[in-house]
């Protein structure tokens, strides 16, 4: 497997190729905003290529032993 193939697999898994877009979102605020009632839809960003590449790099490094735990 290559890192590029891992990116391809994750891109498919998270639905970035879906014509309707991904159904995976990243929360851009602290979770405590839920409890004080200030959370809104604007506080979420749709998963994109940057997040997929970051995730693939993390998995690749962990599996390759390139990062210390």
Automatic annotation (TrEMBL):
Name of the molecule in the record? Uncharacterized protein
Lineage top rank: taxon: Bacteria
